[in-house]
Automatic annotation (TrEMBL):
<feature type="domain" description="TRNA-binding">
    <location>
        <begin position="8"/>
        <end position="110"/>
    </location>
</feature>
<keyword id="KW-0820">tRNA-binding</keyword>
<keyword id="KW-0963">Cytoplasm</keyword>
<keyword id="KW-0436">Ligase</keyword>
<dbReference type="InterPro" id="IPR002547">
    <property type="entry name" value="tRNA-bd_dom"/>
</dbReference>
<keyword id="KW-0694">RNA-binding</keyword>
<dbReference type="GO" id="GO:0006431">
    <property type="term" value="P:methionyl-tRNA aminoacylation"/>
</dbReference>
<dbReference type="InterPro" id="IPR004495">
    <property type="entry name" value="Met-tRNA-synth_bsu_C"/>
</dbReference>
<comment type="subunit">
    <text>Homodimer.</text>
</comment>
<dbReference type="GO" id="GO:0004825">
    <property type="term" value="F:methionine-tRNA ligase activity"/>
</dbReference>
<keyword id="KW-0030">Aminoacyl-tRNA synthetase</keyword>
<dbReference type="GO" id="GO:0000049">
    <property type="term" value="F:tRNA binding"/>
</dbReference>
<comment type="function">
    <text>Is required not only for elongation of protein synthesis but also for the initiation of all mRNA translation through initiator tRNA(fMet) aminoacylation.</text>
</comment>
<keyword id="KW-0547">Nucleotide-binding</keyword>
<dbReference type="InterPro" id="IPR012340">
    <property type="entry name" value="NA-bd_OB-fold"/>
</dbReference>
<protein>
    <recommendedName>
        <fullName>Methionine--tRNA ligase</fullName>
        <ecNumber>6.1.1.10</ecNumber>
    </recommendedName>
</protein>
<dbReference type="GO" id="GO:0005737">
    <property type="term" value="C:cytoplasm"/>
</dbReference>
């Protein structure tokens, strides 16, 4: 694994986001479409490979951490405007990084 320096790390804008909506992505095996509330920074649409690990209705209103300044990526299903943080091997073993109660959408993760 390559190392990054502190200047590279501080350029990554990690923010708390609230999942406003979670939708199934037709013809996608792993992806769900998430509409995220990033507070005063607005909304983002993100595609995440968490379909096997979470029920859509359990995602709504969950707080997550998003890479807010990731360059938008055109995908077959639409444009993904960020990336949510998760751990695990994949499939059913995916675990979202969730801020504790008291965090608000838009808060910077330091």
């Amino acid at each position: 694994m390559s190392e990054i320096n502190i200047e590279e790390f501080i350029n990554v804008d990690l923010r708390v986001a609230k999942i406003k909506e979670a939708h199934e992505v037709p013809d996608a095996d792993k992806l769900v479409e998430l509409i995220l509330d990033v507070g005063e920074l607005g909304e983002k649409r993100v595609f995440a490979g968490i379909k096997d690990a979470y029920e859509l209705e359990d995602l709504t209103n969950k707080l997550v951490v998003v890479v807010n300044n990731l360059k938008p990526r055109k995908m077959r299903f639409g444009i993904s405007e960020g990336m949510i943080l998760a751990s695990g091997e994949g499939g059913k073993d995916v675990f979202l990084v969730c801020p504790e109660e008291g965090s608000k959408p838009g808060d910077r993760v330091k």
